[in-house]
């Protein structure tokens, strides 16, 4: 064992690094989905004003509010409440990406269960591994954009989605 003092980690810097990592995971999916739907590309960005004004950590994803937590001590319920509050303020879907050092990202969101006639049977919070969450994200993002294309043709025309 080393007697050397542990290097102190700047939690703000670590959080920003985590947000950039999540942008790097999501950007290729966003690009692929938008290209397949013949929509103009967009660039996802960290929300630089989040600590002053609140709001989600990553901006640019219509219909979703993304919260990112890159910390060593898990406090999932508190993070989830924050993600839900931010999503409710925008009337959209909460997405929570979280991980500790040397771990893969995990994601949490809501999913629904439909009955045989398409009726809503339940809405449940789910936690997925990184690969499954990114697959879910691609499908959900595609469906949200298709909804806007069908129901908001003005937005679709000017590619504001």
* Topology order in helix (H) and strand (E) letters: HEHEEHEEEHH
Tally of helical segments: 5
Task: Characterize the main sheet.
Answer: 4 strands, mixed
Query: What is the percent of helical residues?
Result: 40-55%
Instruction: Provide the CATH architecture.
Output: 3-Layer(aba) Sandwich
Oligomer: single chain
CATH topology: Trna Endonuclease, Chain: A, domain 1
State the strand order across the main sheet: 3-4-5-6
Mean pLDDT: 86
> How many domains make up the 3D coordinates?
1
Task: Please report the first level of CATH classification, the CATH class.
Answer: Alpha Beta
Counting DSSP E segments of at least 2 residues, the number of strands comes to 6
Distance between the termini: 54 Å
Low-confidence spans: none
Strand content bin: 15-25%
What is the radius of gyration? 17 Å
The shape is: globular
Determine the structural class based on helices, strands and strand pairing.
alpha+beta
How would you characterize this protein structure?
- About 20% of the residues are buried.
- The model has no long low-confidence stretch (mean pLDDT about 85).
- The protein has a four-stranded mixed β-sheet with strand order 3-4-5-6. A two-stranded antiparallel ribbon has the order 1-2.
- Strand 3, helix 3 and strand 4 form a beta-alpha-beta unit.
- The chain is built from five helices and six strands.
- By secondary structure, it is of the alpha+beta class.
- It is globular.
- Helix 1 crosses helix 4.
